[in-house]
Amino acid sequence: MAIAIYAVIIVLSLVIQTTLFTSWPFLTVVPDLVLVIVVLFSIINGPSFGAKFGFAAGLGLDLLIGQFIGMNALIKMLIGIGVGYLALKLYKENYVIPFLFVIGATVIDQLLYALGTIIFGIPAPLMFILTEQLLPAMLLNGILSLLLYVRLYYFNQKISYWDELFKRAG
Amino acid sequence: MSRFVKWARILVVIILLVAIAGSIHFTSRSRSQVTIVEQVFRDVLSPVQRLFMRVSRSINHFFTSIAQIGDLREENEQLKAEVLELQQQLYLMAEYKRENEWLREALDFREQHSFSMQIAEVIGRTPTNLFSTITINRGEKHGVSSGMAVMSGTGVVGTVQSVSNYTATVLLATDSRSAIGGMVQDTGDLVLIEGDPDYSGMLLAKPLSKDVKLEVGDLLVTSGLSQHFPKGMPVGKVVEVVPNRYQLSFTAYVQPIVDYTRLEYVVVLLNDTE
């Protein structure tokens, strides 16, 4: 049951990222909601979960983009593992931790994706990304993390509780 | 046994990484044919995307309307006057069209292209900042196929990049992978119109011969040399001409006619005949 709920969360994030977040002209960059939820759930549930969730969410994003399928899956899986391990020893109720992790993950995600496209043949404008996109992306993703972390933290506990109930009932 | 399990895990990870690298490489270029997994995924998500996009537009319109109430009345009066003037011009145009058809018949001209149209709603946009594409709710089942031209009421939007049964991905003209054959409306000089690789949202026009002249304010339209775009469709207006090194050639920055941030409905030109 938990898998189904996490799958719905991934699908909803993909839909919101391709519709709501892309249709407001005042947003100069698209907030990466998928990255934010990968980071937040990795902090909450650890590296093993982060790897699987990151891979699934990244793959969903790749299937919608239609190019470099596997790139987002790999990058978000690595971010999930990295964030999961680093967060193991940290106090999870602190708001600053997810904010900092999301900002760091945004930098890594954007640079790795640009590097990946260059390696596989499409020249990505690194200077444009560094000067025009990175800072707004970090800011937007950071704000999203502050808005979502507490809600996701307590929702995750409910998911575990429902999953336990479902297993006992089944 | 634990050593065997450890090596088995390492082998699985290596196989997974090789599979991912292969997938990335195979899908690194634009493809007209997408995999069945992608088709199913996009078709299943399409109705949900459409719902969210409509909600988003409603919110947008609501806030935009509030902000513009003061200007709307004045604009309404101006538009009413313009409508009357345009209606008169339409009657004249209908006369010219009839005269044109008689003349063509007299000179035995044939139509080189025949297009029927499929109206589509924009249900999604690129979820990343590196590519410029939109998703529309018409696909293979509606006669849409890769390479077809996509227009709005004002001008060129782009070309169909890939299709599923019920959706299609459209590569916008501003994407760096896009290239459209164009010409200067006034002079007929041929240019190549591409998306700016620096993602400025502008188009770049490059001359196709030495004696092409471009000036600020020139309107660029489609040249009609491709079988997908009819001739004379507005693409954009030249806003800056930048000479290249040694002044032997130049690149012009072109402001697109279409406002890509406000696309709600587009028209796909379905090729009927050669």
Topology summary:
The complex is a heterodimer of chains A (170) and B (274).
Chain A: H1 2-18, H2 33-45, H3 47-65, H4 71-87, H5 96-119, H6 126-169
Chain B: H1 2-26, H2 36-106, E1 114-125, E2 133-136, E3 149-151, E4 156-163, E5 168-172, E6 179-184, E7 190-195, E8 203-207, E9 219-222, E10 234-243, E11 250-256, E12 265-273
Antiparallel strand pairs in B: 1-2, 1-12, 2-5, 3-4, 3-12, 4-5, 6-7, 6-9, 7-8, 8-11, 9-10, 10-11
In short:
The complex is a heterodimer of chains A (170) and B (274). Chain A has helices spanning 2-18, 33-45, 47-65, 71-87, 96-119, 126-169. By secondary structure, chain A is mainly α.
Could you characterize what this model shows?
The complex is a heterodimer of chains A (170) and B (274). By secondary structure, chain A is mainly alpha-helical. Helix content of chain A is 79%, strand content 0%. Chain A has helices at residues 2-18, 33-45, 47-65, 71-87, 96-119, 126-169. Chain A is globular and about 55 Å long. The mean pLDDT of chain A is 87. The longest helix of chain B is centred in the N-terminal third of the chain and has 71 residues, at 36-106. Chain B starts with a helix and ends with a strand. Chain B is built from 2 helices and 12 strands. The relative contact order of chain B is 0.13. In chain B, strand 10 and strand 11 form a beta hairpin. The model of chain B has no long low-confidence stretch (mean pLDDT 83). Chain B has a 6-stranded antiparallel beta barrel with strand order 1-2-5-4-3-12. In chain B, strands 6-7-8-11-10-9 form a 6-stranded antiparallel β-barrel. Chain B is of the alpha+beta class. Classes of the chains: A mainly alpha (170), B alpha+beta (274). Chains A and B meet through helix 1, helix 3, helix 4, helix 5 and helix 6 of A and helix 1, helix 2 and strand 1 of B.
